[in-house]
Amino acid sequence: GILTMERLRMLPSVQIYFNALAQMLCASVEPFKKECLGVLFGSLPTKTKNQFIIAFVQPVQCVNRKRFTEIKPNDKSWFRLQDFFSQIPGRSRYLGDFHSHAEWGNLNPSDKMSDQDIVAMQEDSYKLEIIIAISSCAKTPKLWAVEEDGSLCGSFGSKKTMYDFIISAYVLYSDDADDDQKPKPKKIKIATPEFIKSFNRVLERRRARTNKL
């Protein structure tokens, strides 16, 4: 799962299909104050297109939680799921995981990988990890956009409850294939134009109706 300079001249990007991203947001909202966990499916970068594609996702329902900041799949259910999705036909394959980091009291969640996240990715050789930082939206909702660091940020929800999201994608990366040090996660750029266009249209219509009142 490690990317080296011998294999890639530059870091890949990741395209996330509309339904996959919408489902990840729903998965993070449902437990909100607790972390969610799910599996990413799609295709790996190729020689002609240096980009991951996340075609669909599957939230993991049988999980073990420790406090409010750690989540792991139940071993038996995880083995069943692995055995099942390894047989799914087609070009989509298991890419890695996604999970959420939720607000804690007055502290906003981080979109960075925790030490536990990094160790898990290194030990299990995930190709890709998505972190969804979710918090209550206390100010004016923000339109969706890809930031300079590659993260996708924006707000969404209902009139009653609005959430802020920071979505970041990571790969393990080493500058030297012979380096004895463990590879570190690097953030890569997210591309999801259909999602941004559709969700911003809803926010802009809502803002226009509010301004008329």
pLDDT < 50 stretches: 4-8
Query: What is the C-alpha radius of gyration, as a whole number of Å?
Result: 18 Å
- Return the string of H and E elements: EEHEEEEHEHEEEEEEH
What share of the residues lie within helices?
10-25%
Number of helices: 4
Structure overview:
- This protein starts with a strand and ends with a helix.
- By secondary structure, it is α/β, with parallel strands linked by helices.
- It has helices at residues 18-29, 75-85, 115-124, 193-212, and strands at residues 2-4, 13-16, 37-43, 51-59, 63-66, 70-73, 93-102, 128-136, 145-146, 152-157, 162-174, 184-188, 190-191.
- The longest helix has 20 residues, at 193-212.
- Strands 1, 2, 3, 4, 7, 8, 9, 10, 11, 12 and 13 form an 11-stranded mixed β-sheet that branches. Strands 5-6 form a two-stranded antiparallel ribbon.
- Strand 9 and strand 10 (152-157) form a beta hairpin.
